[in-house]
Design brief:
Elements lengths: L62 H19 L3 H4 E4 L44 H5 L4 H4 L9 H7 L4 H17 L13 E4 L13 H14 L11 H4 L3 H4 L4 H23 L1 E4 L11 E3 L2 H8 L8 H21 L1 H5 L8 H19 L15 H20 L6 H22 L22 H30 L1
Antiparallel strand pairs: 1-2, 3-4
Amino acid sequence: MEGKYNTKSPDGIQPLFQPGDKGGTTSAPKKGDEKSPFSTLRPLSDQCFCKLEGQIDDCSCKVDTVDDFNNKKIYPRIKSLLSKEFFRYFQYQPHKKCRFSFPSSGKCTSSYCQVKSCSADDLPPGLNGQIAETGHTQILENKYSASAQRPQNCDDASDTLGQVDSTLSETASRDIDEWRMHDESSQFCDITDQSCEDCIHVDLTLNPERYTGYSGIASRSIWKSIYEENCFSLTGLNPMEAFSSSFRSDKLNALCLEKRAFFRAISGLHSSITIHLAANYPIKESSTPFLVNSAEWGPNLELFHQRFDPENTEGQGPYWLKNLYFVYLLELRALAKAAPYLANQSYFTGREDDDLETSLAVQDLLNLVESFPEHFDETSMFVGGKQAKEMKLEFQGHFKNITRVMDCVSCDKCKLWGKLQITGLGTALKILFSGEFEPSNSSALPVLHSGLQLTRNEIVSLFNAFGKISTSIVELQRFRDLLKAR
């Protein structure tokens, strides 16, 4: 089985292959080589793009419709929006204990694997506690924490009022229990309490998703676990061949829609990550990766071709690229469905002018998202009574397990971006499939579940994850243009 993997291939949070990939017949240029990676290229074809036309699998939309809408309209706006302070800072728990047993080659020590965290002084005043916002996401994030349940400190002159504030009525207690149960039942991610002592903030603009050089058995085992143990596949297959044969496009069509959608979403995310690493490859080495101009980064066309060319992937590479469009439509629909909720957020950082500008930019993006004519239709999934509900719970459990697998990644930057993008996708699924579908008076598609709430971290993850998918589609066109130019 190990023979199917390219143990010498350059990797990110994953080996840059998907199920069925032979691992490639070429290797990327060695880091530190002063020559351009294009100087050693063999003749390349455009076979990688042979499936990127026509209708997107399990959707009504076509590839060129998405290309035009994203590249001309969505991408410029989401790129600008993600530079705003509210969306730049992501909180996560980098040292959360791995619950599983994976082969380990040790922690990645490359400078490209490192993450630069923020001190409290680096954060906007609304995020470091200098300025408090009332009644919004900062309170929502910690509504179940121990500190949120404790009575507030009161002076001697307000003892009576303090007693009233610290005593919950039976109705209020029941409401809190119901909120908690709804949150837990609707979660697709293993969410960390944002008040955890070892959580850190990172400025995503100072820690861009790039090629890190992280490779070996540890990185391969992460994606092997995600596909073999958490994606749905046909029963009765030889377990020794499962990773390479279970998820071929011809066998995938034998699965039900929900199981196909699960795989397409994970595969699409995987393709997006691979594209980002191939598009942001170190052309020239640097020992100080946190300095923007200290290294030269650019597209590695050979690496892209190696990972998606049909000859290197048993014919599956082009299908994986098409799955990128599936996950794009899924996350686009989530933004559209949650638009009324998202439009009412204040995007608080404690800087009033910036917050207003961010809110207006979000509204502009959401108006555009809602105007898309061919949204993903989530009502075709999880219908049919008890069996459908059981399928939904299984779907939810599998995805939540993948979020836990991310804690086992031994490259810090790979873990950061893996956790953020998985959380973003999980938030999209939460928006689409929480509760029963509630009909809309003005649209054939259902409205957002009335009881759904999102934390600040979920909102940040949702927009950043969608931004990554949007950028990948732009980079895909860039690679297509480079191939044509050659």
